[in-house]
Amino acid sequence: MTRANLTTSNVPVRFDICDGCVVISGSLSVDSVGLVDRDALAGHGRAIQAIDIAKVGRLDTSGAWLLVDLQRRLSVPDRAVALRGASEAQDQLIETVRRNLAVDEAVRPPPPTLADRLETLGRATVAAGRVAVALTGFLGSVVAAMAVTVLHPRRLRLTSVVHHMQEVGLKAVPIVALMAFLIGVVLAFQGAAQLRQFGAEVFVVDLIAISVLRELGILLTAIIVAGRSGSAFTAAIGSMKMREEIDAMRTLGLDPIAVLVVPRVLALILMLPVLGFIADIAGLVGGAIMSWIELGVSPAVFRTRLVTDTDVWHFAVGMIKAPFFALIIGIIGCYEGMMVEGDAESLGRLTSLSVVLSIFLVIVADALFSIFFAVVGV
């Protein structure tokens, strides 16, 4: 017989290992369980086949937990350790504790193979294709509703359009102007630091004009509008979807796209070029001020070089992009709102998705426009 002393001497419990069986005697209570070295006993591994508690006098919930834990530790996949010698009351207590213990953590899955990665990529590609098809169909519905509005102008909800123009346009002027002003300041400061090395400080005017008018002004404006107004579209329409207001509109014979989507998209198409123009002016003003402070380029020189050396097409390129960016933001914001289900979790998730997807597609569209204008020589 091998005796395993797994407690201190002043604790009335003893563990003896004999012929693959752990014989426990004494009292298994809260006083003794905390001092038992379970790791030392579990180290015997396959040598233990059973646990005998016939000599246990007192057993409380802590002791029952210890027995269940030891049984789990000593068991192996192809053989479970038996627990024997328990009285009827002890057996009921042990089973009650066993049922209420937390389930063991799931086994960590094996690392994904190349086939698993290809399957994940394929599923993601199919899901993205389905979203693209759905967005295309939604765009077609919106364009059809706009065409009907053009043929029947009395169907245009002018009050709603003006309201959304105020929300997405007028109220966004401060943040857009501030953003563009700071971008112009940063461009002038960084450009001055680089161009001063070559004695070409005056070319900072060209750098600011082309960057702001052609790319950064309208692109950053669209990103701000996507985060500000696109998310608001999704949240507003999604809330109506959750409260079943859109279903009520269909019941009343109203087209939700004509009532909810068209005014929002039309307001964006009308106001984003205006916001882009404001961003261009603010960016040029910020660049001119920093050029004056950092390089000594006076506002008169800045204006003269801007008018003389900056092609009007730089400004036109930015304005051409604006309606397309607005259409992307409006379509995605309203589409994700229509996809909201009947819970708040869906509303939050799709609102975030709306912002991310809008910004991503705006940047993709901007890249495509850049390639197109480079090919045609504009």
By helix and strand content, what is the structural category? alpha/beta
Strand order in space, largest sheet: 1-2-3-4-5
Shape: elongated
Biggest sheet overview: 5 strands, mixed
- Strand-residue fraction? 5-15%
* Low-pLDDT runs: 4-9
Number of helices: 13
Work out the radius of gyration: 36 Å
Q: Count the E strands.
A: 5
What's a quick, concise take on this entry?
The chain is built from 13 helices and five strands. The chain has 378 residues and is α/β, with parallel strands linked by helices.
Explain the overall architecture.
It is a single chain. The protein is an alpha/beta fold. The protein has helices at residues 30-33, 38-42, 61-74, 88-100, 114-151, 158-168, 173-195, 204-242, 245-251, 256-295, 299-309, 312-338, 344-376, and strands at residues 2-4, 13-18, 21-28, 50-59, 82-84. The chain folds into two domains: 2-100, Transcription Regulator spoIIAA, CATH 3.30.750; 127-376, no CATH class. The longest helix has 40 residues, at 256-295. 31% of the residues are buried.
Keywords:
2 domains; 8% strand; 13 helices; elongated; Transcription Regulator spoIIAA
Please give the structural blueprint.
Elements: E1 2-4, E2 13-18, E3 21-28, H1 30-33, H2 38-42, E4 50-59, H3 61-74, E5 82-84, H4 88-100, H5 114-151, H6 158-168, H7 173-195, H8 204-242, H9 245-251, H10 256-295, H11 299-309, H12 312-338, H13 344-376
Parallel strand pairs: 3-4, 4-5
Antiparallel strand pairs: 1-2, 2-3
Helix pairs in contact: 3-4, 5-10, 6-10, 7-8, 7-10, 8-10, 8-12, 8-13, 10-12, 12-13
